[in-house]
Design a protein that fits this description.
The protein is α/β, with parallel strands linked by helices and 264 residues long. It contains eight helices and nine strands. The N and C termini lie far apart (38 Å).
């Protein structure tokens, strides 16, 4: 992807949530290198300002929590008014923490994780779908996870949110096809990001964040419908999907668990 990305000699326009760290920050930097016009969403304005200062392309920043549907709608409207509809919208914002599915005290965390990881994606896409339908083009990209393939003990909220997200994106992909809108689901395995740095267990096939993001960008450019990255985790994910429930229960019960914690 050494050549400058362009569509009809115009710079690609990319709108990214969760842009203040990890995958989102790397996506912003990599697309900036390709000359894209960016719309970046994150909760921390000071970090968005630092990222904008380091890149040398037109860039709009929006300090919005993806659970804030009205805030995202305003951000989308501002970007569209100033630059036109984006070519690609990447719903990347997400959170992860350990939860126990049968514990009442984890209920708030469950709700918050699903609010961000599922409804945050829906909130991100909705403001753009109408204009995408009108122009009969555009691409919606959701960052899911291999963790959404089967329920993981100690990660009930995260697994549930990503399983729901995978199915939402699949429904959306089918619905959008008649309008010429592409929907891409990316389900990564482990990636070196602030989200994984606290994991105290072995993370097989873990990728450097920039390496992972370049793979994401290839999948997006090729308009893949669904992809697990890296390919080794694709094999693992396929096995997970088709294992009988008793076998999965036996294998998963002794697996590593994330530390429980509250999400604000």
């Amino acid at each position: 992807m050494s050549e400058k990305i362009a569509i009809k000699n115009k710079a690609l326009k990319v709108f990214i949530t969760g842009a203040t760290s990890g995958i989102g920050e790397s996506l912003a930097n990599q697309y900036a290198k390709e000359g894209a016009i960016l719309g970046l969403v994150g909760r921390r304005l000071e970090l968005l300002k630092k990222i904008k200062a380091k890149i040398h392309v037109p860039c709009e920043i929006y300090a919005v929590d993806v659970s804030d549907q009205k805030g995202l709608q305003k951000a989308a409207a501002h970007f569209i008014k100033k630059h036109g509809a984006p070519d690609i919208v990447i719903a990347n914002a997400g959170v992860s923490t350990g939860t126990l599915a049968g514990e009442k005290e984890d209920l708030h965390t469950f709700k918050r994780v699903i609010e961000i990881n599922l409804f945050g994606v829906i909130h991100t896409f909705l403001p753009f779908i109408k204009v995408f339908k009108k122009q009969k083009s555009g691409q919606l990209v959701g960052i899911a996870s291999v963790a959404g393939i089967r329920g993981l003990p100690g990660s009930g909220a995260y697994s549930s949110s990503k399983a729901a997200l995978i199915n939402y994106l699949e429904s959306l992909r089918i619905e959008m096809k008649p309008f010429g809108i592409h929907v891409t689901t990316i389900a990564p395995g482990y990636i070196h990001t602030p989200m994984t740095k606290h994991n105290r267990y072995v993370m097989p096939f873990i990728l450097d964040v920039d390496d992972a993001v370049l793979r994401f960008m290839r999948a997006i450019k090729n308009k893949r419908g669904f992809i697990i990255i890296p390919w080794q985790m694709n094999i693992v994910g396929t096995l997970m999907k088709f294992l009988p429930a008793p076998v999965w229960d036996f294998l998963a019960k002794g697996g590593p668990k994330k530390t429980r914690g509250m999400i604000q």
